[in-house]
Amino acid sequence: MSKILVNELAHTNNTSALTVDSTGRILTPARPAFHARLTSGSTEGKTGTLVFNTEDFDIGGNYDTSNGRFTAPIAGIYYFAFDGLVAGDTGGAALASGTNAMVSFIKNGSEGTFSTRSYNYMTGGTQYNTMNRIDCIQLAANDYVQVKVIAQYIYVDATNLYGPTFQGFLLG
User: What is this structure's pTM?
Assistant: First the structure.
């Protein structure tokens, strides 16, 4: 049996691509990844294409807080997730019973059928329910992905405790 012993793999320009720690855990410090939140100074309901204006991290600098786009630096399969509370109007009121809401990932500005699958149908009393959207999307280099609220609104509060999030990373 052969064994390769290595602590780090790097590009010829000395950029670290992969490290192995002393317990054997593999780390990929240059893997594109981001986590962004939508914050506001007031309580409101947002619809249309969302612009998440606060980044918690952005490895590679591929998420743009000015337009809400994650732009793929290289071709590959990317994992994306969205989480937010559904609202019933621009004032941020709770969604009414029996009403549906829809959120989609938009690739290159198009609402293709590949990603218009997430919706939330409310039954029972008026309430703030959580909308989650998760998908793996194949992207070419320079393709971009955004979050779009297609039906109803997403709740953003003035304290920024309940703001929606958009996050993703390169799977490979």
Answer: 0.89
